[in-house]
Design brief:
The complex is a heterotrimer of chains A (332), B (306) and C (250). By secondary structure, chain A is mostly helical. Chain A is 73% helix and 1% strand. Chain A contains 13 helices and two strands, in the order H-H-H-H-H-H-E-H-H-H-E-H-H-H-H. In chain A, strands 1-2 form a two-stranded antiparallel ribbon. Chain B has a two-stranded antiparallel ribbon with strand order 1-2. In chain B, helix 3 packs antiparallel against helix 8 and helix 9 packs across helix 11. The longest helix of chain B has 32 residues. The relative contact order of chain B is 0.19. In chain C, helix 3 runs parallel beside helix 5 and helix 4 packs across helix 5. The chains are: A mainly alpha (332), B mainly alpha (306), C alpha/beta (250). Chains A and B meet through helix 5, helix 6, helix 10 and helix 12 of A and helix 4, helix 9 and helix 11 of B.
Chain lengths: 332, 306, 250
């Protein structure tokens, strides 16, 4: 990517960095420093705001595995956020505060639900898939609303945050870094996954599923596995969300939330890893900013989304990526 | 649980099914001919209800409200189609879903700005405020009228699609769009016509629902999602699927909500039934959808493409 | 030995009979060509053999096993490999990755999440082998979007071969190739045919008569003749069917 004309003291891996890598480092570096900066300027609110951003970035990252890399447009992934949230909520209601129990129950329930729903949905494709995933998310929304003993429509307060023994998430800073580290772990795992055999099968299915089957791949089991993985990432995000808000509410599973996740992915850059993180950051900051302007900020956001779809489909990181590639070609 | 009660709930189910059919037919027509699922269809239904409630507020007449609301919704639909949706027909499904999502957010906020967040009300026409007598059963006249109007519209749609030239073009456009345009038919005009028809049906549904539901921001989406269940269960792109799917969904949902909690109390102990009954009743229709899809992923009455 | 045996295959689309009781076999080491005028149902036949289209009646046996009801990927894993008339590759990847995916399908499972695909030398080596066979070596690391049409057809063939099949179903492989490219493919298929059984659907009569051990003629979904190239060339029914369409006399 570099012309090589400039002698460099940097190691090879750093010399090959271009706009894309710098973008990623700046974004993640910035996120890493949020509690520090927030304490320095005496505004603890930002830790809360950015914890939300990191949590939704994680969820968007999870959804992007199947949406960006697998071309499976799930309009119902907020369901898995909800499972994570309610796992914490219900266990907490019954006096269980252990973080490992929260995670274990959430992942277990999430896996079972994801396998069942995945098997039903993945035999359809295109618009049918989108509609069916939306319908299932709505089903769980109504289920949560109807569970009166767990708060129903009003939601369920959570007495205490998850306790992992050696540490608990009671402190806002601890929660932030716990979420951030999980985000980094997920990024690393996906980075390897998308270029490994599994990821290539997924991307092959996005590219030409007919040929994948003709080559001999039993595509359903790989797409189902990807669906479950993406669901479990959202479940973990849900556990974190419950800890942040100390509240379990059916509104987590509202169809609007599923839509917002998709907006984050497209806004940031579909089919890339940093894209969803960038998109979550951009969207939530934008919402925060717009909400400060007017309580009717949705009327700006709505047409903005339409505009993005019509005009700026590649997303923020997508454009950075494209610019970097063009610049590299020009140098060569 | 008397026969009378069952019959009443069955009729209520039929009435819900008819409303769902009006929405499903519009959605299916647009999907069949443009391969585009308009998720903002629920917003057209909502606007139809708001237009009707607003006109009713001014005139006090249900008929005048309808005379205003239905054309207004059609016009709104056509404007939205020409301005935003027409660019999306060639795009992939993700783009279509996102763009219509943005439109939903826009319309939900728009009505909140214009009419506020509280529900608005309108009344059924005077002449229909009583009850009718059916097999010794007293049933609200207005709801009965909804069923009547809906069935007439269904018949009208059937005649339109199967007995007129326009209907033939619609059927041709749904199965072989390239041929239709190659024959020199004004495809753009046909698209707009179909979209306007769908919008009109949504407006009619909104008008008729006005007196019996809460007209408020966000009312469109729960109905829309139920409509999606109808289409998916009945078979995407098929009007027949939309009709039978709507009736099944309407009746199962209504009867389920009315009787399942009671039924469960017969077979299991009280507190469990108390908790499980309403929960299962609210998700019953989704379970039915799941079972149908597990056995027949293409739905009950799928359209066969050439 | 008989690798592929098709018996009484029938396919209807509404009132139209696309496949009308077709019987044919493919032996190991032979090229069995299927020819016929346009609309004869040749691609429909291949689609039923590969599993993309379910027949209404009849059976398909692969090495004695009944595959009539099996899905596409199962048949592929049993050794049935198919090439497409309209090139069907992975446009987002390079030539090498395209062929590697074909190899990967037949080398164990793909529940591997950590090791980069391109680091798997076993797959890379086999893929490059197939790429060399079709003559695309110079273009191995090029993205598909940059390939010329003829090169894409070569890639199509490389992917079909890389799955180490037993039976090849080739749907007009010469379509869109230049004279030189077609000649090259004929040479390749001749050299390979002893290893496989090949069902070749083609319009290029030159190639058909150079390669085929047997020829089946399909008209409106029915087999009107089956035999050696000489027998087909002299068959009056075949001449009638092709009158004005092609000149069969060499």
């Amino acid at each position: 990517m570099n012309s090589g004309a400039t002698p460099s003291v940097l190691p090879t891996w750093a010399r090959n960095w271009g706009a894309r890598e710098i973008f990623g480092v700046l974004l993640l570096g910035g996120l890493a420093l949020v509690p520090v900066i927030s304490a320095a300027i005496g505004q603890p609110f930002y830790v809360t705001l950015f914890t939300r951003i990191v949590i939704y970035a994680l969820a968007a990252l999870g959804l992007n595995l199947i949406l960006g890399y697998g071309a499976m447009v799930s309009f119902g992934h907020a369901l898995y956020l909800g499972i994570g949230v309610y796992a914490v909520g219900i266990l907490s209601f019954h006096g269980v505060n252990n973080g490992f129990a929260h995670l274990g129950a959430a992942l277990g329930a999430g896996a079972v639900v994801a396998v069942v729903i995945g098997i039903v949905c993945l035999r359809t494709s295109g618009m049918a898939f989108i509609m069916i995933t939306l319908a299932f998310a709505q089903m769980f929304f109504f289920l949560a609303v109807s569970l009166k003993q767990y708060g129903g429509d009003d939601g369920l307060p959570i007495a205490a945050r998850s306790d992992f023994g050696v540490f608990s998430l009671a402190s806002n800073t601890t929660l932030y870094y716990f979420a951030f580290i999980l985000l980094l772990v997920c990024l690393l795992f996906f980075r390897r996954l998308v270029d490994a055999r599994f990821g290539m099968v997924l991307r092959g299915c996005r590219s030409n599923e007919r040929r994948m089957a003709a080559l001999g791949f039993p595509t359903l089991r790989y797409r189902l596995t990807a669906y479950v993985i993406s669901a479990l990432v959202c479940v973990v995000a849900g556990v974190l969300l419950a800890n942040l808000t100390k509240f379990a509410s059916p509104s987590t599973m509202a169809w609007q939330t599923s839509g917002e996740l998709i907006v984050m992915i497209v806004l940031g850059g579909m089919g890339t890893l940093i894209g969803p993180v960038a998109g979550a950051t951009a969207l939530l900051l934008l919402e925060e900013f717009l909400a400060g302007l007017t309580q009717h900020w949705m009327i700006i956001l709505g047409p903005l989304i339409v505009l993005i779809v019509l005009v700026a489909k590649k997303g923020l990181y997508g454009y950075v990526s494209e610019w970097a590639v063009r610049r590299a070609k020009a140098i060569r | 649980m008397t026969l009378g009660l069952v019959l009443t709930q069955a009729l209520n189910g039929l009435q819900l099914g008819i409303l769902l059919f009006l929405l499903a037919a519009g959605l299916t027509l647009v999907f069949g001919i443009m391969n585009f699922v308009n998720l903002a269809h629920g917003s057209l239904y909502m606007m139809g209800a708001y237009f009707a409630a607003a006109a009713f507020g001014y005139t006090g007449s249900f008929l005048l409200a309808g005379a205003f609301a239905i054309p207004a919704t059609m016009l709104l639909g056509i404007i939205v189609e020409r301005v935003a949706l027409t660019h999306l027909y060639q795009r992939d499904h993700l783009d279509q879903v996102l763009a219509t999502f943005g439109l939903i957010l826009f319309f939900n906020e728009l009505v909140r700005i214009i009419w506020g967040p509280a529900s608005v009300y309108m009344n059924a026409p005077e002449v229909l405020t009583g009850t009718v007598e059916l097999f010794g059963l007293r049933y609200p006249a207005y709801r009965f009228a909804i069923i009547g109007v809906g069935l007439s519209v269904a018949l009208g749609l059937y005649l339109l699609i199967h007995r007129t030239r326009v209907g033939m073009l619609i059927r041709a456009g749904a199965t072989h769009p390239e041929i239709v345009s190659a024959l020199g038919v004004n495809v753009r005009g046909l698209n707009t016509l179909v979209f306007g028809l769908g919008a009109g049906l949504a407006g009619l549904a909104g008008l008729m629902a006005g007196p019996i539901v809460s007209v408020q921001s966000g009312m469109g989406e729960p109905i829309l999602i139920l409509t999606l269940v109808v289409i998916v269960t009945g078979g995407i792109g098929s009007i027949r699927g939309a009709f039978y799917g709507a009736l099944i969904v309407g009746v199962v949902d209504t009867i389920g909500r009315a009787f399942l909690p009671t039924l469960l109390r017969e077979v299991m102990e009280r507190s469990l039934a108390q908790a499980a009954g309403p929960a299962i009743a609210s998700i019953l229709i989704y379970l039915v959808m799941a079972v149908v899809l597990a056995l027949r992923p293409q739905g009950l009455f799928p359209v066969k493409h050439g | 030995m008989t690798l592929l045996a098709v018996t009484g295959l029938v396919k209807r689309f509404g009132g139209l009979i696309a496949t009308d009781g077709v019987d044919l076999t493919v032996e190991r080491g032979e090229v069995h060509a299927v020819i016929g005028p346009n609309g004869a149902g040749k691609t429909t036949l291949i689609n039923q053999l590969s599993g993309e289209l379910p027949p209404d009646a009849g059976s398909i046996m692969l090495e004695g096993a009944d595959i009539t009801a099996l899905p596409v990927h199962r048949r592929a894993m049993m050794g049935l490999s198919r090439s497409y008339q309209i090139t069907s590759v992975f446009p987002d990847f390079s030539v090498l990755v395209n062929v590697m995916l074909a190899v990967q399908a037949h080398r164990g499972h793909s529940f591997s999440f950590w090791r980069p695909l391109l680091a798997e030398t076993m797959l890379t080596d086999r893929a490059r082998q197939a790429i060399d066979q079709v003559g695309l070596t110079a273009r191995a690391d090029v993205p598909v979007a940059a390939l010329a049409h003829g090169e894409r057809r070569q890639l199509e063939m490389a992917m079909t071969l890389a799955t180490d099949p037993k039976v090849l179903l080739l749907d007009e492989p010469m379509a869109g190739m230049s004279l030189a490219e077609s000649e090259r493919l004929v040479v390749l298929l001749r050299s390979l045919k002893s290893q496989y059984g090949i069902l070749l659907v083609e319009h290029d009569m030159d190639a058909v008569f150079k390669l085929a051990d047997r020829i089946t003629v399909l008209v409106y979904g029915r087999v009107i003749a089956c035999g050696s190239p000489e027998a087909i060339r002299n068959n009056p029914d075949v001449r009638t069917a092709y009158l004005g369409d092609q000149d069969l006399v060499a």
